[in-house]
Amino acid sequence: MATIEYLRTDPDLPPVGVVDRRPITPVKKGIFGAIAVLGAVAWAILAVVRGESVNAVWIVIAAVCTYVIAYRFYSTLIQRKITKPRDDLATPAEILDNGKDFVPMDRRVLYGHHFAAIAGAGPLVGPVLAAQMGYLPGTIWIVVGVVLAGAVQDYLVLWISLKRRGRSLGQMARDELGLVGGVAAIVGVLVIMMILLAVLALVVVNALAESPWGIFSIGMTIPIALFMGVYLRYLRPGKVGEVSIIGFVLLILAIVSGGWVAETSWGADWFTLAPVTIAWLLIGYGFVASVLPVWLLLAPRDYLSTFMKIGTIALLAIGILVTLPVLKAPAISEFAISGTGPAFAGSLFPFLFITIACGALSGFHALIASGTTPKLLEKESHARMIGYGGMLMESFVAVMALITACIIDQHLYFAMNAPAGLTGGTPETAAAYTNSLGLSGPPTTPEALGQAAADVGEESIISRTGGAPTLAIGISEVFSQFLGGAGMKSFWYHFAIMFEALFILTTIDAGTRVARFMLSDSLGNFGGPARKFKDPSWRIGAWFCSAAVVLAWGSILLMGVTDPLGGINALFPLFGIANQLLAAIALTVVLTILIKKGMVKWAWIAAVPLVWDLVVTMTASWQKIFSADPKLGYWKQHSICQQAQEAGTLCLTAKTPESVDAVVRNTFIQGTLSIIFAVLVIIVAVVGALVCVRALRSGGAETTESPEEPSKLFAPSGFFPTAEEKEVQRQWDELAEKPTRTPEPAS
């Protein structure tokens, strides 16, 4: 067999793909062997060494080495045995190109869009909250979980959607599982999606509230992205490098000018916004971003923010390697066993695995991988780089977030992440509270907490829950040590806040668009006049579904913003459970398709993470529903506050009768949703198991893959083109310059 194969679909056109089968060289084998040994040493140090002398560098080394080996070998195994990409086949983006939702996109820009869309609050908030259990459990779950579960799910969901004209997860469940399982999946996915988007938006609100610097800088990214979209489509098509440099310069200018604006009287007046106001602005932004053409705002904004995301995380990794910070959190804390942590209640199992969601395994990613991304993919071979590789990058973000939470003083960490009902909201009461927790290190003082806030240009950092402010403190701590000194802490803190808000906003706009796709598909199943909803080009349907989606998650967002229990503390466990239950639905659909296609030998690749996910999420759901601990159980909280409401007294952290009413209402909603989520996922899992058993007995079954069509586009298969691919690209470029012959678009 030839080591280099050129794929042709038209004898009059250059090749549409290049397949490279050259074996790995001895030098590369040696390099990968050295990486594996270095990673093993790092893991051994993290697992064995105890005390306060463990350096954060070892976490970075262990994670990076594991990612390199996993991508090179495990994802290649999945590609060769399951996905088997063919670049001579047209993707949905090529077949259905409509210039709005289906657009063949440069793989580098699409990597940025996909990474930005999946990398929302989860890899930032979850690891920061989970740091209360120590650094070791979180590190293991983030790194091992992404290799065997998270990246596998993202890659395989992208693959099955790619083979079905970019169909949404809910619709694929309906097609593959039948009516009962499909309806349960569609309802579950849509309802869960609303919770996920609301919590993501809530983190943005908490990060930007009363922050004129952050509001101005984030607002400026919208016109910058619009300019980039027009530039890349009309002014200088294909000039990705040019627009990248321009966008990066404008982005840095937006950050720096945000500091200037915030120091002016008019800037402070105009851009200092209350949480409820920011919530309404996010609702409006979500609608507009979801109905505009994907090339105009969504893709360039995600690509732009990816510079900021990957650049900041890479710089943070370099900063850790330079400054060598020591981990101040213990390897495993007492809260991991007692389950009484202030940041969130619950023991290590199962709550660590739902709190750290997006960095290891995230059902939300399945919505992106079956939403916007498969509609933009140029070539089937790009799915591995974007699906598996994109998730590894997000996992690295989660690792960095965990490190930043573990290198800061633990008294400061808990003062920031415990709700105001525990800290009292003042430096004096917060210092007394954290000193009562029995943490390692010297006790803190009100002056120390006040100075920590002053160092980053904030009035207070007490009970700044949600994870984002804690991560910003950690980033400012590392950056200020090797870039500018202590005087730059304020700049780096606000830079980090904007960095985090960019992360999450790109998830909100992409998530709203994906939810619109799902709702359209679902309404189209009713037939009759509703069948028009299945047409992605029908703009009235797009506007209607977008409005319905933003109103749904917007109402939950407003509930969280005004929640007396601390919206993020109350909603994040529900977010984590919902997110992981969504992953169970996605993995069930993937496993069912693998069994139907006769890939029984390799079905364990999806089955192992599915079984683990179901065990974790069902255990967590049971505890949140039935636990008699008021810190844990939604219905126990509801019962206590309902009795207080009837008696005219206060309850839990509610300080007013109105707050008691809000707790009663919110805990009822949260408890009810927990039950609904669990029941729907159990239905999907049972139906999926029955479909798999029938397929095994019959030796396979029909799937709903779309008919194959030949491709007439070329793109390199990897991030960087090979010499052979550069030559083929030159042939296509020459062909495009000839006025007498241009390739015909695929029908």
UniProtKB/TrEMBL annotation:
Chain intervals with Basic and acidic residues compositional bias: 724-741
Membrane topology, as annotated, equals: Multi-pass membrane protein
Keyword Cell membrane in the entry? The reply is yes
Q: Where are the transmembrane segments?
A: 31-49, 55-74, 115-134, 140-162, 183-207, 213-231, 243-262, 274-298, 310-327, 347-370, 391-413, 491-508, 540-559, 571-595, 602-622, 668-693
Q: Which domain of life is it from?
A: Bacteria
Alphabetical UniProt keywords: Cell membrane, Membrane, Transmembrane, Transmembrane helix, Transport
Q: Name one Pfam family in it.
A: CstA
| Location within or outside the cell | Cell membrane
Q: Which residues form the CstA N-terminal domain?
A: 55-620
Q: Where is this region: Disordered?
A: 724-747
Q: Where is the signal peptide?
A: none
InterPro entries given for it?
A: CstA (IPR051605), CstA_N (IPR003706)
Looking up PANTHER family in the UniProt record yields: INNER MEMBRANE PEPTIDE TRANSPORTER (PTHR30252), PYRUVATE_PROTON SYMPORTER BTST (PTHR30252:SF3)
Q: Which family does it belong to?
A: Belongs to the peptide transporter carbon starvation (CstA) (TC 2.A.114) family.
Which protein, by its recorded name, is this? Carbon starvation CstA family protein
The protein's organism comes out as Nocardia jiangsuensis
Q: What is the lineage of its organism?
A: Bacteria, Bacillati, Actinomycetota, Actinomycetes, Mycobacteriales
